[in-house]
Specification:
The chain is built from 14 helices and two strands, in the order H-E-E-H-H-H-H-H-H-H-H-H-H-H-H-H. It has 283 residues and is mostly helical. Strands 1-2 form a two-stranded antiparallel sheet.
């Protein structure tokens, strides 16, 4: 009896947050699912016509392929940028590491819209990058309104999400393993390739799934920095909701996007270290 009272007393502390999330997330989500099953914007009989249209429409299949292609590419670019940063942070003393981690978190302090416009200034035809290329005799390169601009903008936003899982995995490695390998005659490169890198793979995989899940729902950066061939699923939701005014179709596309994100999150929970990330625990 005492344990039941304790449970309800502790659960009451979570009631305001649960009610708040239910009102701003769960209720609208149920509304989107119901809208996706309606025949028209004004309601009518329930139908799966929108989902049938998704499966049979070449535009949607092409957008899904583009979304997966961009998400995988941005995840790979973010990994190439994040791993050296995480490795450098793992080798620093705690106080200095905390200072450097502030620079890693800087992208979080600026909105995606502002950063996208900043990339326009940086990567434009007369931007800073092309001006530097002209100084060394290289003609201007088209870096905006194509896949390069999308990868640059998304990677800049996604790197912090990759750094922390890899850093946690690197810090959990016993330093005695590297010292033992060095005593046995292995060089620094061999120690990294045979000891450090394989042991950090759980952090790499967890970070890749996390970044890939976030990439699926990108909207602002592909819309501002990408071209016509870089439309993602979130842009397709906006297309059906604001331009075509087909809300059941927009809702069905949104439900499919949520389903893909949930599937990626389930995969993340199965990876070593990924479950603790979803639960908010550190390694």
């Amino acid at each position: 009896m005492v344990s039941v009272r304790k449970f309800f007393r502790e659960a009451s502390f979570a009631a305001p947050a649960t009610l708040f999330l239910g009102l701003i997330f769960a209720v609208p989500l149920v509304g989107i699912v119901l809208m996706s099953l309606q025949k028209s914007n004004n309601g009518g009989d329930f139908t799966i016509a929108a989902y049938n249209k998704i499966v049979t429409t070449p535009l949607f299949l092409r957008v899904v392929y583009t979304t997966l292609e961009i998400s995988v590419g941005a995840t790979f670019c973010a990994l190439l940028l994040a791993y050296p940063v995480a490795y450098f942070l793992a080798t620093q003393p705690p106080r200095r590491r905390a200072l450097f981690m502030i620079f890693v978190l800087i992208p979080f302090w600026t909105s995606s819209l502002v950063k996208a416009f900043s990339f326009m200034v940086l990567l434009g035809q007369t931007g800073i990058v092309n001006q530097m290329l002209e100084l060394v005799g290289i003609p201007p390169v088209k870096l905006l309104f194509n896949r390069i601009g999308v990868f640059a903008g998304m990677s800049h936003y996604l790197v912090p999400f990759f750094v922390f899982p890899i850093l946690a995995s690197l810090q959990s490695q016993p330093p005695e393993l590297a010292r033992a390998a060095a005593i046995m005659g292995a060089g620094k490169l061999r120690i990294f390739l045979r000891v450090t890198l394989p042991l950090s793979m759980p952090g790499v995989i967890a970070g890749a799934l996390l970044v890939f899940t976030i990439s699926l729902s990108f909207y602002v950066i592909p819309a501002l920095l990408g071209g016509r061939k870089d439309m993602m699923i979130a842009n397709l939701v906006d297309f059906y909701a604001r331009e075509v005014l087909d809300w059941p179709m927009a809702s069905a596309v949104a439900v499919v996007l949520i389903g893909v994100a949930v599937a990626a999150s389930v995969a993340l929970s199965k990876v070593r270290g990924g479950g603790s990330m979803l639960e908010g625990r550190s390694h």
